[in-house]
Design brief:
The protein is of the alpha+beta class. The protein has a single domain (about 5-70), classed as Alpha-Beta Plaits (2-Layer Sandwich). Helix content is about 20%, strand content about 25%. The chain is globular, with a radius of gyration of 11 Å. The protein binds iron/sulfur cluster.
Length: about 70
Amino acid sequence: MPYKSIIVDREKCISAGSCVAVAPEVFELDGEGKAVVKNATGDSDEMILDAAKACPTLAITLIDSNGKQVVP
Ligand code: SF4
């Protein structure tokens, strides 16, 4: 089931790139080296979950379709 929201906190993002490595169709680094969501449904839900968990600064927030915050 697709996530309702995938949010990257730009203040917390340290450009580690882990999210891009794990879910390359969902996340990319912008011109400032910060992660952005390019396609919220580009990778599987599991990959998106793994990507969010892989973020060293917990900059990625996932909200499921019921409005529940899954990560962090
Ligand atoms: S893993 Fe976290 S810190 Fe690294 S680029 Fe993605 S959002 Fe930013």
